[in-house]
Amino acid sequence: MNRLQGLPPVLDGRTRLLVLGSFPGVASLRAQQYYGHPQNQFWKILGVLWGLDLVGQTYEERLVSVRARGLGIWDVYSACEREGSLDTAIRQPELNDFSRVLRECPTLRAIAHNGGESFRHAKHTQALGLPVYRLPSTSPANASWSFERKRLAWQEVFRFADLLA
Protein backbone atom coordinates (compact mmCIF):
# COMPACT_ATOMS: atom_id res chain seq x y z
CA MET A 1 0.00 0.00 0.00
CA ASN A 2 1.25 3.46 -0.85
CA ARG A 3 1.74 6.13 1.79
CA LEU A 4 -0.56 9.06 0.99
CA GLN A 5 0.13 12.68 1.94
CA GLY A 6 -2.71 15.00 2.89
CA LEU A 7 -3.36 18.58 1.85
CA PRO A 8 -1.94 21.72 3.47
CA PRO A 9 -4.24 23.55 5.89
CA VAL A 10 -6.42 26.45 4.81
CA LEU A 11 -5.81 28.80 7.75
CA ASP A 12 -4.99 32.42 8.40
CA GLY A 13 -5.20 35.07 11.08
CA ARG A 14 -8.95 35.54 10.44
CA THR A 15 -9.87 31.90 11.09
CA ARG A 16 -12.57 31.69 13.78
CA LEU A 17 -13.74 28.12 13.15
CA LEU A 18 -11.56 25.23 12.03
CA VAL A 19 -13.33 22.29 10.38
CA LEU A 20 -11.31 19.10 10.50
CA GLY A 21 -12.03 16.18 8.21
CA SER A 22 -10.29 12.85 8.53
CA PHE A 23 -8.20 12.56 5.34
CA PRO A 24 -8.90 13.54 1.71
CA GLY A 25 -10.55 10.92 -0.47
CA VAL A 26 -9.20 9.75 -3.81
CA ALA A 27 -11.00 12.49 -5.80
CA SER A 28 -9.77 15.20 -3.44
CA LEU A 29 -6.17 13.98 -3.54
CA ARG A 30 -6.28 13.72 -7.33
CA ALA A 31 -7.62 17.28 -7.62
CA GLN A 32 -5.51 18.56 -4.68
CA GLN A 33 -8.71 20.14 -3.30
CA TYR A 34 -10.54 19.72 -0.03
CA TYR A 35 -13.93 18.05 -0.51
CA GLY A 36 -13.24 17.42 -4.19
CA HIS A 37 -15.73 14.58 -4.67
CA PRO A 38 -18.75 16.01 -6.52
CA GLN A 39 -21.16 14.16 -4.19
CA ASN A 40 -19.61 15.53 -1.00
CA GLN A 41 -22.02 18.09 0.46
CA PHE A 42 -19.42 20.31 2.14
CA TRP A 43 -19.43 23.11 -0.47
CA LYS A 44 -23.19 22.89 -0.94
CA ILE A 45 -23.82 23.26 2.82
CA LEU A 46 -21.46 26.23 3.07
CA GLY A 47 -23.08 27.81 0.03
CA VAL A 48 -26.55 27.53 1.56
CA LEU A 49 -25.35 28.89 4.91
CA TRP A 50 -23.65 31.86 3.27
CA GLY A 51 -26.07 32.45 0.39
CA LEU A 52 -23.35 31.80 -2.21
CA ASP A 53 -23.05 29.49 -5.20
CA LEU A 54 -19.84 27.87 -4.00
CA VAL A 55 -20.47 24.76 -6.09
CA GLY A 56 -20.35 26.94 -9.22
CA GLN A 57 -17.08 28.62 -8.22
CA THR A 58 -13.54 27.52 -8.91
CA TYR A 59 -11.67 25.99 -6.00
CA GLU A 60 -9.54 29.12 -5.66
CA GLU A 61 -12.70 31.28 -5.45
CA ARG A 62 -14.11 28.94 -2.81
CA LEU A 63 -10.98 29.32 -0.71
CA VAL A 64 -11.19 33.12 -0.94
CA SER A 65 -14.80 32.93 0.34
CA VAL A 66 -13.83 30.52 3.12
CA ARG A 67 -10.94 32.66 4.35
CA ALA A 68 -12.93 35.90 4.12
CA ARG A 69 -15.65 34.42 6.33
CA GLY A 70 -13.27 33.07 8.99
CA LEU A 71 -13.40 29.36 8.18
CA GLY A 72 -10.36 27.12 8.26
CA ILE A 73 -10.14 23.67 6.67
CA TRP A 74 -7.76 20.86 7.53
CA ASP A 75 -7.71 17.16 8.41
CA VAL A 76 -6.77 15.23 11.51
CA TYR A 77 -4.38 13.03 9.53
CA SER A 78 -1.37 14.36 7.65
CA ALA A 79 -0.61 11.01 6.06
CA CYS A 80 -1.87 7.44 5.98
CA GLU A 81 -2.12 4.27 3.96
CA ARG A 82 -5.48 3.59 2.36
CA GLU A 83 -7.08 1.84 -0.59
CA GLY A 84 -10.08 3.81 -1.84
CA SER A 85 -11.71 6.67 0.06
CA LEU A 86 -13.46 5.15 3.07
CA ASP A 87 -12.31 6.14 6.55
CA THR A 88 -12.59 2.50 7.61
CA ALA A 89 -9.77 1.68 5.18
CA ILE A 90 -7.29 4.12 6.77
CA ARG A 91 -4.16 2.36 8.02
CA GLN A 92 -1.04 3.69 9.77
CA PRO A 93 -2.38 7.25 10.15
CA GLU A 94 -0.16 10.10 11.24
CA LEU A 95 -1.82 12.98 13.12
CA ASN A 96 -1.32 16.59 12.12
CA ASP A 97 0.43 18.90 14.56
CA PHE A 98 -2.45 20.92 16.01
CA SER A 99 -0.18 23.05 18.22
CA ARG A 100 0.42 25.38 15.27
CA VAL A 101 -3.28 26.26 15.02
CA LEU A 102 -3.36 28.65 17.96
CA ARG A 103 -0.24 30.45 16.71
CA GLU A 104 -1.58 30.84 13.17
CA CYS A 105 -5.20 31.54 14.16
CA PRO A 106 -5.29 34.03 17.05
CA THR A 107 -9.05 34.65 16.57
CA LEU A 108 -9.98 30.94 16.62
CA ARG A 109 -13.18 30.35 18.62
CA ALA A 110 -13.93 26.67 18.03
CA ILE A 111 -13.01 23.46 16.26
CA ALA A 112 -15.52 21.24 14.49
CA HIS A 113 -14.89 17.66 13.43
CA ASN A 114 -16.51 16.71 10.14
CA GLY A 115 -17.60 13.14 10.88
CA GLY A 116 -16.87 10.35 13.31
CA GLU A 117 -13.36 9.38 12.24
CA SER A 118 -12.19 12.94 12.70
CA PHE A 119 -13.99 13.22 16.05
CA ARG A 120 -12.15 10.13 17.34
CA HIS A 121 -9.23 12.53 17.84
CA ALA A 122 -11.20 15.22 19.71
CA LYS A 123 -8.98 14.74 22.77
CA HIS A 124 -6.12 16.27 20.76
CA THR A 125 -8.15 19.29 19.70
CA GLN A 126 -9.78 19.71 23.12
CA ALA A 127 -6.26 20.12 24.51
CA LEU A 128 -6.18 23.49 22.72
CA GLY A 129 -8.74 24.77 25.24
CA LEU A 130 -11.48 25.72 22.76
CA PRO A 131 -15.00 24.37 22.27
CA VAL A 132 -14.96 21.25 20.11
CA TYR A 133 -17.97 20.02 18.12
CA ARG A 134 -18.86 16.88 16.24
CA LEU A 135 -20.58 17.61 12.95
CA PRO A 136 -22.32 15.06 10.74
CA SER A 137 -20.06 14.02 7.90
CA THR A 138 -20.65 15.70 4.55
CA SER A 139 -19.32 12.57 2.81
CA PRO A 140 -21.59 10.74 0.36
CA ALA A 141 -21.00 7.70 2.58
CA ASN A 142 -23.12 9.41 5.29
CA ALA A 143 -26.47 8.81 3.62
CA SER A 144 -28.33 8.27 6.92
CA TRP A 145 -28.51 12.05 7.48
CA SER A 146 -30.60 14.16 5.09
CA PHE A 147 -29.08 17.29 3.61
CA GLU A 148 -31.42 19.46 5.69
CA ARG A 149 -30.49 17.69 8.93
CA LYS A 150 -26.79 18.16 8.15
CA ARG A 151 -27.34 21.82 7.25
CA LEU A 152 -29.10 22.52 10.55
CA ALA A 153 -26.30 20.91 12.56
CA TRP A 154 -23.64 22.86 10.67
CA GLN A 155 -25.65 26.08 10.98
CA GLU A 156 -25.69 25.80 14.77
CA VAL A 157 -21.91 25.57 14.98
CA PHE A 158 -21.40 28.31 12.39
CA ARG A 159 -23.73 30.57 14.42
CA PHE A 160 -21.66 29.99 17.57
CA ALA A 161 -18.46 30.89 15.71
CA ASP A 162 -20.12 33.96 14.12
CA LEU A 163 -19.66 32.65 10.58
CA LEU A 164 -23.20 33.22 9.31
CA ALA A 165 -23.95 36.11 6.95
Question: Short description, anyone?
Answer:
It is built from seven helices and seven strands. With 165 residues, the protein is an alpha/beta fold.
Would you kindly provide a written description of the structure presented here, covering whatever features stand out?
- By secondary structure, this protein is an alpha/beta fold.
- The chain has a single domain, classed as 3-Layer(aba) Sandwich (Uracil-DNA Glycosylase, subunit E).
- Strands 3-2-6-7 form a four-stranded parallel sheet.
- The mean pLDDT is 96.
In CATH, what is the homologous superfamily?
A: Uracil-DNA glycosylase-like domain
Largest sheet: 4 strands, parallel
Q: Which descriptor suits the 3D outline? A: globular
Helix content: 25-40%
Approximate strand percentage: 15-25%
What is the CATH class designation?
Alpha Beta
Number of domains: 1
Kindly provide the radius of gyration, computed on alpha-carbon positions and rounded to a whole number of angstroms.
Answer: 15 Å
Helix-strand pattern: EEHHHEEEHEHHEH
Unreliable stretches covering 5 or more consecutive residues = none
Topology:
Elements: E1 3-5, E2 17-21, H1 26-31, H2 42-50, H3 59-68, E3 71-75, E4 77-81, E5 91-95, H4 99-104, E6 110-114, H5 116-119, H6 122-126, E7 132-135, H7 147-160
Parallel strand pairs: 2-3, 2-6, 6-7
Antiparallel strand pairs: 1-4, 4-5
